[in-house]
Amino acid sequence: MAITIIGAGAIGGVLGTYLARAGEEVVFCDTAQDHVNKINLAGLTIEGPDETFTVKSTAYTPTQLIEKNQSLDIVFLCVKAQHTEKALSPFLPLLTSTSQVVSFQNGLCEREISKIVGAERTIGCFVNFSADYLEPGKILYGGVASLYLGELDGQVSERVTALKNKLQVWGPAQVTDNIWGFLWGKMSYAGLLYATALVDETMAAVVEKHDLREMLMELCSEILEVADKEEIIPLGFDDWEPALIYPKEGRDNKKLDAQLSRLAERMAINKKTKSGIWRDLAIRKRETEVDAQLVPILDIGKNHKVAMPLLTALVKAIKEIESGSRQMSWQNLYELQKIYESLPHKIRRI
Hints:
Blueprint: E1 3-6, H1 10-21, E2 26-29, H2 33-42, E3 44-47, E4 52-55, E5 58-60, H3 62-68, E6 72-77, H4 84-88, E7 95-103, H5 109-117, E8 122-127, E9 131-135, E10 138-141, E11 147-151, H6 158-166, E12 174-175, H7 179-196, H8 203-207, H9 210-229, H10 253-269, H11 276-282, H12 290-303, H13 309-323, H14 330-342, H15 345-348
Parallel strand pairs: 1-2, 1-6, 2-5, 3-10, 6-7, 7-8, 11-12
Antiparallel strand pairs: 3-4, 8-11, 9-10
């Protein structure tokens, strides 16, 4: 079955290139005309930690691909979370009853995708490897990390297993019966990543700040409490262990501190030392995915009457950096620290 990559940037570019190099039929689709032109002319280059290679491929803009009017078998949706509906909706006429749409995105995008194409055509995906779009036809790849595929209802299906097998040419993709657990686990991690983007520093440098760790874990705990209210058991990955953070009453700070030190080490040796959130703010000067990732959690939490003072303040700070009314600074993190220190003991529980 042919694979169409909608969004040939960081994640889509890496996965599609590995698949194409292995002989899979892969078509790239991207809104950036210069990126599409470069792929068609010279191929797509992946600059990774162990190798740099280029694969000749075929690429289209969305308009060009729609004009081909060919049905789509497997769709890897690899656009920013806030662009999910806009990117996917034009291709609805090209989907068949057996088409598969896989969300290689950050956030809870499967909720939106299943409303657009139906749950029966939606496959959940958790992906944690780091990559960055550098320039037309060139992607920086940080290296292999976790990738899990799963049906939204928890079934282990043949189609998910087949897709997992295809992705082995990239790395150790796996199948899970709890894809929502991984997605919510990643959202708790996203809280930390957004916090690291408040300062013009590496992710590791922020995690290594011991005086900020309790505050940062309280921030992540707010997200995990919402998951708990949704009756989701968040799962860990790549030195991130939600079970060490929440429930707060059973938190072992010594074990958690050791885990965070391991996480900081992992971040420090990754080829990509700063988050994509930081890149959106500092380099590309564009909006982040905060409205599609963290704001929905605030809305879900509000329905459950979960207090989220730190997450609320973080979202506000990110939006102010987006608008230019706030600058990246360590002071932003210490403002969150003040909020944390003002919380009543019954909420703090550290």
